[in-house]
């Protein structure tokens, strides 16, 4: 491939000296430009300057293992399901969150951006992986430009998606625990700035991949193949260090922040509920308030647990698998049985990770009565069977990745997602 990383030109003087030694005794004049890459590799291997390639396992070697057959089946048939449900769900979520009655809440600005980010993650990650599985063509190896762009977009969009959830959680924390500051921090203009700044931040963090990632040439079955990975001069950074940094940005830090803030939100809600019961002692509204508060606290607890455990269970496995395979990848390559198991575990972890970017719409519907009502109203309006106003449903929207619920009336900044 002409667009590959030309390691021969990068080491021109060394290769020329080796070839000179090989042909000098026979009085043969030859230069690097006169030979193809395959010829150079063959000559250097014959001379003992390049070790024989390590044994690699092909499909025929692995197909005998049940784990590999399960991996292949899941890799072919599961991605289309997630792609369809995730794409349709994210589009519907974006349309509902951008409805004129929903744009009054700053939280929905984050959720609308989240729908777009999740769609990019599915397209840039899951779709390309599935396409490579069924066509056996990796678009990242088709050109240096695609290799670099896909790497930058892959890291940036996935990290951006997760930190939009963190931003929503922080906003909910401010509304519940510091209500007097909510009007200053939790407004639409500030939410739009945060959305843009987060996008710029993660693009800046990962922009180095444009020059630290490249197409590298390797010998496979006596042929040169190309892999999109760390450039020869940056392999330590990209292949060893960066997976840890990505795990920190994508899973470990967001999970810790979300869990801690959710705990503080729950404590504050319980404390506020107890205080209202004391103040309302003897009031005719006490019974109704207690019933409403109890129901709200129950829904809040379920929603917070859903957020934390769904996020943790769907993202943490992939980061663990990436780190383990980076550290012990040589051991996996030397044993076909272990490699088959590793491929299956990695496929399951990847599908769980992409499930996190595919299921938001359905979690919104499952945990948010108001969100469901808006969906029903929009469907009915389109069918002409119901034209009633949906503005009464714009006061509250439960979200699988957000943090509050209440029955009592709230201001615009206090409306829960």
From TrEMBL:
Keywords: G-protein coupled receptor, Membrane, Receptor, Transducer, Transmembrane, Transmembrane helix
UniProt keyword Membrane present: yes
Gene Ontology molecular functions: G protein-coupled receptor activity
Domain of life assignment: Eukaryota
PROSITE patterns (alphabetical): G_PROTEIN_RECEP_F1_1 (PS00237), G_PROTEIN_RECEP_F1_2 (PS50262)
SUPFAM superfamilies attached to this UniProt entry: Family A G protein-coupled receptor-like
Pfam families with a match to the protein in the record: 7tm_1
UniProt key word Transmembrane: yes
Domain G-protein coupled receptors family 1 profile: 89-364
A GO CC term assigned to this protein in UniProt: membrane
Similarity section: Belongs to the G-protein coupled receptor 1 family.
This protein's name: Thyrotropin-releasing hormone receptor
Organism in which the protein naturally occurs: Mizuhopecten yessoensis
Upper classification of the organism: Eukaryota, Metazoa, Spiralia, Lophotrochozoa, Mollusca
